[in-house]
Every structure is written in C-alpha cells, then in structure tokens.
Protein: Acetolactate synthase small subunit
Amino acid sequence: METDHTRHIIAALVTNEPGVLSQVAGMFAARGFNIDSLVVGRTENPQISRMTIVVMGDQAVLEQVRKQLMRLVPVVKVVDYREVSHVERDLLLMQVSTEGDQGKRTELIELANLFRARVVDVSDDRLMIEMAGAEEKLEAFIRLAEPFGILELARTGVIAMPRGAAAPMARRAGMAAAAAASGVDDADLPPG
Structure:
C-alpha cells in the first residue's frame, strides 16, 4: 500500500507560449498540490516545451494532478514515469570553503572525484564543484561536503526521460487526440 510520501515524476509536454508556466503553477497552488521540483525546457520541437514535475503523494494525488494538467489548454501530453524505465538527473553547483590547510582542498577534490563531480572554478579560499546525477547521489555528496563549509549551493531540479522505447505504446496512442486538438502533429512530439 502506498503512503502519502511516494515520489512521482511527471512530464508534461506543453505548447511553447507565454503564460504556460504560470497556468500550471496556478493549477497546483489552487488545488493545494505541493511541487517538490519543477523544471521547464525546450525540446527538439520548437513548438513544444517539456515540464518535468516531481510531486509527493499517493496514487489519488497523482491521478488528480494528471487529470488537472490535461484540462489545461496548453498541455499536449502528460506522462507518468513511475512505471516506466527512465533516466533522471539533477544538476548541482556548489561553492565549498577551502580556507585553512591545503589538505582540506585536496580532500575535497578527492571527494568530488569519488562522486564523479568536476571542479569548475578554483580560487584562494574556495572550490566550485559541478555534479549531475540522481537526487540521492547529490544529497549524499552534500552531506559529505557539509563539514568543509558549503558557502553556496544551486540545483536545477529533476529532469527525466524514458529509456529507449520504454514509454507504453497505449499511453502514446491515447495522447494522440490531445496533440491533434492542440494543432501539434503527434509525430513531432518527443517519445515518452
């Protein structure tokens, strides 16, 4: 049985026009849904943008979110990645203090290397580290970097995409009507 803290990743393909983000955010706010992460970016089709939304909740919350999203005119397609094999990434930039002894800097660089992170800027008193990966990996790195003294941290939020042909064909076919109604050719939509 699912608890109220199940994490759901939803991708909404939306028409690329002004005001879409505010409509989607307004829908979430009006219904009391909490957004854990929201990322919007262009796709290979200049008419379409992809919103990747992470929400916490049970299956009923997820169904309500999907139904409400599909009611918005600029939404062309909604995909839930819960039961689809997918890749997800979050990007982190972090400035960490290296003041004090030189060993601290070396130790921090070794830690970054263990996590396959990259040092992208170096100054006398700090390092800037870039890292991409699953949220859990970033959270683990942040915990281990805290004792060094995190000066500043920024994250992009989660982006996700189905692996290969993992998106269920039935779901794709079911969204063709919504794409046609929006004036976007379904063949031009990204998979998933």
Remarks:
- Helices lie at 20-30, 59-71, 102-114, 135-145, 169-181.
- The CA atoms of residues 115 and 141 lie 7 Å apart.
- The mean pLDDT is 84.
